[in-house]
Amino acid sequence: MSSPATPPRSLAEALRRRDDVSLAALLRARPDLITPVPTDLTQLATRAGTRASVVRALERLDRFALQTAEALAVAADPATYDELLGLMAGDDRDPAVTAALPAALAALRVQALVWGADDRLRLVRTARELLAPSPQHPSPTGLGPTVQEATAGMSPGRIQDIVTAAGLPSTHDAVSAVASLTALFTDREHMAALLAEAPQEARDVLSRLVWGPPYGQVTSDPAAHLRWLLDRALLVPTAPGTVVLPREVALHLRTGRAHREPEPVPPTVEATAAHRPQIVDATAAGQAYAALATVEELLKDWDEGGPAVLRAGGLSVRDLKRTAVALDLPEPVAAFWVELAYTAGLLASDGEADERYAATPAYDEWLEQPAARRWARLAETWLTATRTAGLVGGRDAKDRTLSALGPGLDRSAAPEVRHRVLTLLAALPEGAAPAAESVLTRLRWERPLRGPQQEDDLRTRLARWTLSEAELLGVTGRGALSTQGRALLGASTTRAPEPGTGAATAPGGSPSEAAPAGPGDKLPVHHHPTLRPEPLSPAEQAVASAAAARLLAPLLPEPLDHVLLQADLTAVAPGPLKRPLADVLGVLADVESKGGATVYRFTPASVRRALDAGRSASDLHAFLTAHSRTPVPQPLTYLIDDVARRHGHLRVGAASAYVRCDDDAVLNEILADKRAAALRLRRLAPTVLAAQADPATLLEGLRAMGFAPAAESAEGDVLIARAHAHRTPPRTAPEPVPEGPPVPDVTLLTAAIRAIRAGDLASTTPLKPAETTALAPGELPRTSSAETLATMQAAVLTGASLWIGYVNAEGTASQRVIAPVRVEGGFVTAYDHTADEVRTYPLHRITGVAELADD
């Protein structure tokens, strides 16, 4: 093995020199590298250089770390730290860039995108290929190819002409001529003198190309100022009619900077308003109560079976519109509540032949919980869900409409974006509402887009939806994060740190700035001292949700057991009602208006509905007397008695259908009414009319005529028309779709690193010279049974470690490093360095053994 003083020659060697803590940090930052666990560090390095893994790692860099990687992609390979600093900070050595660069470089090293010491920095080859400039994929820096690359196809005579025109002595070959040109373009003093001689029009051309794109078009007979540039290789032709500005020239014109605007410090989040925390919490609690009422109203509307399931899955556009009208909400908001109830497991498809959506048994259990617990379940579901209601109505990759409750709505980045947005809000002082655009700007710095900036990129849309959905749900109030919202994130306190008390480290390693707080001021974004920047585990999230419920409970209104009856046949509920009272009143009266107080109106139809449900007039009088804080108005008493007196006077049964009544005058009145013509009635007896309509149609027709008929069974008993609560079979709530492999926990990291180290020991430790032919890479050692036994017994006496080939019961071959402890009965008991434990191996499954060379 190479000595520590020798620079590593490969990424595998660089990883081999890392300690376990550094390897754990790498695997935590890039969990895809241990899926599955690599056999050794060489395989780990190979996997870390694959295109898919590098792209994923680059996409998770903040803007300044990505700019650092982009600068290394256009620097020499290897580059020194001073060269990198010059590319990032320019000739004037910007202090902010100079201060932030070590942390950004450390972040790239942690993720194994950069390796080597400060005097030999190397960007992983795949990352260089992705970020380096080319005609097909211009560099994000806007820089073009080097002089050497741009002149690669140029004739030696032409290169000598350029050298002479630039005022340099001619050379004996093209290689040295290009080297002299490169030296000229990188010499600030001589380059400034050369450009001072350039015509003004030529300098204007260079200024247009300097920040990219570096390619331009020229005619076959270029103008004099363009010819001046071409003759001195300040512009180099790359194809007929196309020229490029060499990288060294552009860097000189940029005063050494690779980027026009380096962004070492994350943008601050601006506060547009500051509210009292108590006002924020009260507003959020009101929204939380409204959220619960909306979900209950939605599922009550679907109680007897909701809309049909589309053949491709999901809710039709017409059914979503109908639901939005029933909830008195815009369609996108209705889609949000439908999706949230579905994700929480409160509704699902019933799976029957005529498949429809309906509430699940879990909904009934949810209704029995306290209001704060019910809200916490909805909020936790929303925070961790990958289904994204904002996509409803959009188009998928195949140009099909995305429907609510349908497939294609999962976006694995949604939980991370929601958590990050709320974390930024939590870092503001309590009661501070941020400007939405400043939050989006900060998120774009933390996860810059790959390619052209677009305002409608997914993460930006997810952030916008998060801000609006958090307000709907009561996680925020008046735009500021509420106390229960902070608890939902796992904060153990409700007070955010005051400005100036400390700076947090941004994802790229740059500290935040301290600034004064106040409406309209730029507030520092720093992590809450007890708030984790990454999402909580499921167990931790459950604890946080319970804490949020405890904080919300005192802010929710207590359910009432009374209403206020009024003489205009209305009842006013000055707050939420207890469930038995709300259920009965919902049958006896119609909801006329909602808000802080709910207004119910009594009508003949609503009273008849209560009578159809099996209530008698005396029951209704007793109910209203018991639950009204005001005397029961006389008009309401008369209404109930009048409807009850006529209720059931007519009886409708199944013949096809018939009407019977002891008062033949009533039947005569029905027959004489022109509105009964569609029912095609005829008299069978003085007290019985037959109809050619079914009983349900006959009931509706007579009620439309002002009568109060009652349905009866074949035995003549009155049928009680209670609403049938349709429920699906038990259903499991949809699981979130993870974004790549999950971050490994400590146990998995420890086991993975131990296995990688042991595998690396087996693959890199030299073996003692043997008389047998040298083994090919990956080939198992082969020795006879006698040689294997003798070597094992000798190792037991000396305590030496051995390299063995082993084939398990499934026929899988592997290489292991073991330290034999005991050999008896056809088995060897040894300490296995690969598994970091003592194991027993059958000798007949060991293909061969070799001694490890002494270090």
Describe this structure in words.
The protein is an alpha+beta fold. It folds into 6 domains: 11-131, no CATH class; 147-253, no CATH class; 269-554, no CATH class; 564-646, no CATH class; 651-711; 765-851, SH3 type barrels (Roll). Helix content is 43%, strand content 12%. The chain contains 33 helices and 26 strands. Strands 19-20-18-17-21 form a 5-stranded mixed sheet, covered by helices on one side. Helix 20 (371-384) packs antiparallel against helix 25, helix 21 (414-426) packs across helix 23 and helix 22 (436-446) packs across helix 23. It is elongated, with a radius of gyration of 39 Å. The N and C termini lie close together (9 Å). Mean pLDDT is 83; it is low at 451-455 and 492-530.
